[in-house]
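sanity check this chain:
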Amino acid sequence: MTEMTIRETQDENLELIKSAQAGDEGSMEKLITQNMGLVKNIARRFIGRGAEYEDLIQIGTIGMLKAARSFDLSYGTVFSTYAVPLIIGEIRRFLRDDGMIKVSREIRRRGTVIMHEKELFISQNHREPKLSELAEICSLSPEDVAYALDAVCPVFSLQETIGNSDDDSATLENFISSDENEIDKTTDKLALMQAVSKLDETEQKIITLRFFKDLSQQQTAKILGLTQVKISREEKKIFEKLRRQL
């Protein structure tokens, strides 16, 4: 898709959104039809999780509708970029709450308790707890803690800062492509952001400095008060953690 075609598609989306939000059902239907490829590509990512592909498309379409109705034209954001997290969130909620994959009330209650203990740990220790530490505090296995936390994991905001970075520009929105033909890359990035959020504080800082601020291992080591060798070893550990989660 050429840059001119992308721009034309974006402009047409905005015109359709204006009309749809004003009550024109025809414009809403056309908007959904034109962006159905986006919904289908996202739905494919959830095949094999207990729901039919066609059902995933229908649920994803609900997310697209919500995006169209809530999109603020003053955002200065490409519509497809805004819609992606809403479509993913709608499908995830369906799989967890209404689909064949159920999350019990007990798991949700456990997840809430773990989140409370996590916040308490952060306030007392000024850092994110490791999974093993949370497991010990809650008298659970690390696997049970990870599952429960995933069950109550919130949908990410486009404006959310990546990791623990103080750089306001390092937000999820800035790392999402606006080209609908690159939706696979977009959803991969969303999955990566979720995986990064589960790393401990030091690991998140390393990721931010090395790959979002593009610093060398030596520069990163100096900022964090570590050696270059330590940074290199930590990176290997981080990559292994991310591979397991992805």
Notes: The chain has twelve helices and no strands. Residues 19 and 36 are 18 Å apart (CA to CA). Confidence is low (pLDDT under 50) at residues 1-6, 155-159, 162-167, 175-182.
